[in-house]
């Protein structure tokens, strides 16, 4: 008896798809101690999660004896598939009307990989425990729900057989199709080109009709309901461009609807032809609850070969997240999320260069100079009016503690290098940010307008204190000889909490009366 006849003898048979709530569910024990109807009374999962490794139970029921079933199982396979629909609940219960069908994942399993086979009365049960990854649908669904389908059929290797493999080769001594463009090969203009178009490309060939007699009808089954599905972990990535690298911040947020603990076991970010440096020392595994957000920072730098090669500007970024959840209802779930995006690592911020302003007049006092965008670090200054070869400019470096406390003094360290060819003298002036005034005074106002303005004036706002208090009387640098360096510091007191606004630091050249304003100072966070 061939495999086709044995498989047809399994019918009438049915396939059931179960998703029990508890991970230690034993379907064979339930069947031995109860009846087949006891499987429908087992507590099932209420909902599923995207990126989940779903533990599915597939049970085949047939009236054939166990020995006959065991003989045919090595020649069979079953395909388990997950589909998503946009389910809209109607009324009470689990009844739902689904619109559309989106394939999430399908995987083939050999039928010989069964967990157990048992015979009860006149029925034989075959139990499989496959694991299927539930990918996210490409379409955006309002109320997604997932259901499963399974089909048991003869294995493809058995259906093909050795004869069909040999028929895939061309027959020996078979002439090739006629080249209908062969006369054009004698054209002098086409002498160097191989013009070839076979006759079979333009000849209508009817496809071979399928042999319905050889077709085998598979045994199909499906889950009895569609399970509502939600994302367990929301992930997004953002980029910040620096002068020599790109900072990628990966945000992982646990869904607030999860009642339980989600443990993040592994997070990986990879970029080909680039160096990836992990900046945050997050101890994994990390336990999170619903609504918690975890941020990991990575420093992305192009490799030497990628910088020299004129390749594509966009670089692929691969992110993989491994996690597991222990829900309060007793379920244990494993998550595996992998997705790809792109980033342009060729874009870098320009190196900050400050230029001196016009000379200040002694009568008008200090006048605000010009400054360009920058960031904390070395700042270079050049005097456009004196561009001598021996005058290489001035370099200032600012540093400060990353954190401080409210009502506590801290220092802004200043390091100055004189690369010019002459002595230099500087003065440092701290200009705190000014608060805009709510009302402006007018020189001449009518009496009626003055009275109206008094009664219609907005309520006075309480004056807001600055973030820091300047404790510097007068800071001077120099005289600084050519090639020398000098270090000093500015004292401040933190008046509020959070990221402190240090305002603007004005540098005055006491010899030429030129000024430059530095606005991008180190970021300092004040704690309670």
From TrEMBL:
It holds the Pfam family IgD3_Trs65. InterPro entries: IgD3_Trs65, Trs65. It comes from Lecanosticta acicola. GO terms for biological process: intra-Golgi vesicle-mediated transport. PANTHER family: TRAFFICKING PROTEIN PARTICLE COMPLEX II-SPECIFIC SUBUNIT 65. Signal peptide: none annotated. This is Trafficking protein particle complex II-specific subunit 65 IgD3 domain-containing protein. Residues 385-526 form the Trafficking protein particle complex II-specific subunit 65 IgD3 domain. Residues 355-387 are annotated as: Disordered. One of its GO terms (cellular component) is TRAPPII protein complex.
